[in-house]
Amino acid sequence: MTSVPLLHLLVVAPHSSAPWSSFATLLSYRFMVNALVAGTIVAILSAIVGWYMVLRRQTFAGHTLAVVGFPGAAGAALLGLSVTPGYLFACVAAALAIGAIPRTRTGAGRATESAIIGTIQAFALACGVLFINLYHGFLDGVTALLFGSFLGITSSQVITLGVITAACLLVLGTLGRPLLFASIDGDVASARGLPVRVLNIAFLVLLGLAVAEVSEITGSLLVFALLVMPAAAAQRLTNRAATGLALSVAIAVGVTWSGLIAAYYLAYPVGFYLTSAGFFVYLAAILIERKRGRAGRRDTR
Amino acid sequence: MRSIDEVVIEFRDACVQLGGHTIWSGLSLEIKRGEFAAILGPNGVGKSTLIKVALGMTGLHFGEVRVLGAAPGRHQGEIGYLPQRRSFDPSLHIRGFDIVRLGLDGARWGLPLPMRRNRAREQRRIDDVIELVGASDYADRSIGQLSGGEQQRLLIAQALVQRPEILFLDEPLDSLDLPNQGAISSLIHHVSTVEGVTVVMVAHDVNPILAYLDRVIYIGPGGAVSGTAHEVITTENLSRLFKTPIEVLTTSDGRLVVVGQPEAPAHHSDRHEHGAATMLHAEHPHHHGDGTSH
Lengths: 301, 294
What we know:
The complex is a heterodimer.
Chain A: H1 23-28, H2 30-55, H3 59-78, H4 83-100, H5 107-134, H6 139-147, H7 155-184, H8 186-191, H9 196-218, H10 224-227, H11 229-237, H12 241-265, H13 270-300
Helix pairs in contact in A: 2-7, 2-9, 2-11, 2-12, 3-4, 3-5, 3-9, 4-9, 7-9, 11-12, 11-13, 12-13
Chain B: E1 7-18, E2 21-32, E3 36-40, H1 47-55, E4 62-67, E5 79-82, H2 96-105, H3 116-132, H4 148-160, E6 166-170, H5 178-195, E7 198-202, E8 215-220, E9 223-227, H6 229-232, H7 235-242, E10 247-250, E11 256-259, E12 277-280
Parallel strand pairs in B: 3-7, 3-8, 5-6, 6-7
Antiparallel strand pairs in B: 1-2, 1-4, 8-9, 10-11, 11-12
């Protein structure tokens, strides 16, 4: 666990002279299997948490958690630890801090909230830069932390990701419907006796864990590739809650696999492939929605 | 109208203070099972606060309140609530059906168990209640894409779906246009009789609902009065409540007219009924563009 290859970001993926010759070759590499398994685990969690995040309009909070993860991971590396606990600690701590800000519905309260979050974000980035500077000869690591190190996932990291995801899914299964209720209609949910504030904080912690997981694969700056894009595309394609969640998971897993396999054959950064795949799925979702909207209007006429 | 004389909501000498400021005090009222009650009065007198107290979301400073024979907040599953008008974000991609479903299972923890029979029964109940409010045609569309009146019908369905004993509605007619105000009022009256629900509704325009009201609770800056429309809406009562001379007249066709009612400065600059006189159609129950009778 101590020798997580931080600097493996730009590790040159093994080129096959005839890449299409054998998909089996790809699976014979341990690191590829690890990456595929880890990617799937992370995609499932981020697709579900992301679906709620998009619904709750908390993407800004999600982005902040990702940025705060960066100094967490850099600090962990500075202390000679694996980046995993660094991401986890920083993201969850930041989630709790954001949860402590009272959520108000008025414009002024919202403005204060986003100002506080923005301030935390900038300070976190600054700390990250300092830690990197203190840790000499870490320059490649910066890129890894910011833009991902998909191809350097170890087996023990896979196990950690699996355990965290299983725990989060268990919690999400328990909270699922009340969280949906509180996300859509907090007033009515609390009148029905639901602990809306506790649900808000619990969701932020889940979001922190999901962000920490995604960060290990896409880096801090590209977490939205798995956290926003699949969920936002799914919400444009269906307005049924259960279908939307399933679709979000399917898109996230598909995007992850295609990004990873593309990076195996063509050695450019995996984050680029992954994010591009997500981007085009989202674009397609918008076009499909538009087309349907026009058809729908014609029907009602 | 009322089958049993059972009191379902009772306030006794109740007082609420928020931030050291007394909202209202000395408030006593009784609402009986199956009644259609309106809480009337100008903006800012604490009409919504009264509902929040009954829901257990706001505590009393002193006095007593009992809802369904217990302290407020004890019978959450038997109470439907429609908070003051909030329209959903146009980009909220959740269909109306799922919004209504939350009223049934939104407060349940755990994964929905695949128990077929239960699920089918719930599905039927949701379909029924959507049909009751006349929203079947658009329950499959995203709630954010619907008009104010359509959203309001689905929210009423959500509040009704778990068969509540009491329905609290906070300004359900606010920000609706005039035909929709009439249609939603008539709908609320209709569902309260079909489902046997006690309705407590906050309003600051009494016109669309007066024909259906069993009980009026009028809150003014000078105190509160509870009773039937004719008991409450009198020159003496209103003058005392508003601490300014107000006359209640009866027109030749039997309608009540309130003259000189000071409207508190409204947040709703787009409202349409402002003027010196407010017409109160008390005598002849007539329907306002009923959109529900089908």
